[in-house]
Amino acid sequence: MTAEGTAGDSPEGVLLDEPTTADLRAKVTDAWREFAGALAGMLSGLPSGAQVDLTLDPTASGTGSAIYSVSIRILPDGVIEALAVGNAALPAEFRMDRAAVADMVALGWSPPGVLPGSGDFFGVRTEQDKGKQLATAVSRTLRDVYGAPHPAFLVYLVHDEEDEPIEAGPLATARPEPGLDSSGLDLSELDDDKALAEAMAGTEELVPLDERVRTVIATMSKTTVDQLQVDADGDVGIRAGSAMVFVRVRDNPPLVDVFSPILTEVEPTEQLYVKLSELTNRMPIGRLYVAQDTVWASIPVFGRNFQATHLMLAVQVMTGLADELDDRLHGEFGGKRFFGEGDKPVTPKNNGDDHRPGMYL
């Protein structure tokens, strides 16, 4: 079966039009809720002296030399202390304004220097059995004040007082610090059939489709299946520049959706529909469409007689397509990109024949 057949023969009804998929904001909110729950569970089981360091990855979030971090330490007698970075540790252009500082205080943080020993950091001290409330405050700090767009941008390290690592289980889609250099998608060896064959060895039809799919993605990402970013819906997330690509496995009918929310908070207009129709006609596989206020790109891959190379092609096309199109469409129609900090709406323009397709169209 050709790649064109993979996209063209798929029934419209099994693509990505259902409201639960189109509601991206709910999906991101669920990811943060899952992270807060996992953090609360972790804190409840850590011994005295253990410490959890949470950092917004600057290489992924675009914060440059600014390091936004929160450290949580288990003290004797069931007490938890948390310290969050303050302006003294941030470059001038990334310092928090008065409103952000007020938000920190509203979340329960004491200003720098108020909690004994906190120095230049915001601080809070509570009981270990109140770890759920602290986890919620930390999650909201990272998301709403420090600007982490998704828990997948967080890296964490759990260690003891001698800085020896502690095995404490996963924190939802946040990444353990030792795995930093294995994140991201490397497409430079997509034609390495030997590596793929080794990864897929033993994944015959008796192995569930979702396991085979994750094996392929892990091989492409040069990581392990356990370190893939998987959210509460079971979707595997792959960052592609300013875009996010998700891979979802469906059971009935067996299908793998490779999809991306290209733009959110965009106004559906006639010009937008015309543009998406034109771009879809130029795509080698897949389609573009609007659901609610979100522009989606979708490439389906059949699950029956699953072919790893079909999924690899779909991921390769989608990661390039999404990163290119979100910038192009945002410049023309406004809205928000998944990782487009500070995106603002613009007046839609009709460029007509001035549009020139890029390498993925």
UniProtKB/TrEMBL annotation:
Name the UniProt record assigns to this protein: YbjN domain-containing protein
Record-linked Gene3D superfamilies: 3.30.1460.10
Domain TY-Chap central: 209-340
Region (Disordered): 1-20, 340-361
Domain spans labelled TY-Chap N-terminal: 30-154
Domain of life: Bacteria
Xref: InterPro entries: TY-Chap_M, TY-Chap_N
Taxonomic lineage: Bacteria, Bacillati, Actinomycetota, Actinomycetes, Micromonosporales
